Amino acid sequence: VHQSKLDFFCKLGYGKQDICKVLENLGQEALEDDVLKELIRMGSKPQALESQAQPSQLKLVARGSCSTTPGLKWLGEDESGASSSLRPIVIDGSNVAMSHGNKEVFSCWGIQLAVDWFRERGHTYIKVFVPLWRKEPPRQDSPIADQHILEELEKQSILVYTPSRKVKGKRVVCYDDRYIVKVAYEKDGVIVSNDHYRDLQNENPEWKWFIEHRLLMYSFVSNRFMPPDDPLGRHGPTLSNFLSKKPVLPEKKWQPCPYGKKCTYGNKCKFYHPERLHQAQLSVADELRAKTKVPLALGKEEERCQCSP
């Protein structure tokens, strides 16, 4: 748990010393939001922000590249995508199309719905991976609907075909899931799929962490692409924070106590009590103990005075 949190905040750009110090103060069970709050309170800044404030001669090199010279645009990436605050999106085209087609038809319209949803949110880097043999005319055992959408997305540099060929009449297909996970990992983006990629998780421990924390599942409701509002569960980040590089912490709202003035928890109550702002928040039992201790102490002092010469 410690290593996964350390890797997560290192990817956000924070220094290892600051992260370790916060985890020691808050404990290993601390939530990611609490750790991020503490890092901000300490004044720790991501390395990217510090490099902007203090320009140096060193150049930042994109993860996965070995050269410091600017190369060609990778997979048709836009220049605006690098400066965007939203994460790159990598879509498992086969999974999305089959889900929209009720696992019976390869529905290309489902891919278009997913691409349009991320476009409306402002994502500039969107890639869809589909096996090359889907270009072939549909057959009875593998029907395809709206195949022209694939050609349109390919012209827009959004769709990428994974290679396949025929050897002695048999089709040899490359594993498209490996392409999807590898590209998403190198771009530090999000995988859109309902597949868990368990075989790839066992292949690489770094991919295992990435798939567990960056996999966005979805549903189709009446031709509407709908990802969940809490991709990592009830206690995880919201969908907007999950899809952005710089998560925004929500303001803490105190929930009023449902018992109101009848609450007997005192200072142990986790809810908000507006009537106790200027009062000592003691429980009823503690108040009774405090009241009973005072007369007992007075009685003992009187006995001592009478006994003393």
From TrEMBL:
One of its GO terms (molecular function) is zinc ion binding. One of its GO terms (cellular component) is nucleus. Keywords: Endonuclease, Hydrolase, Magnesium, Metal-binding, Nuclease, Zinc, Zinc-finger. This is ZC12D ribonuclease. Residues 251-276 form the C3H1-type domain. Belongs to the ZC3H12 family. It holds the Pfam family UBA_6. A zinc finger (C3H1-type) spans 251-276. It comes from the Eukaryota. Its cofactor is Mg(2+). It comes from Edolisoma coerulescens.
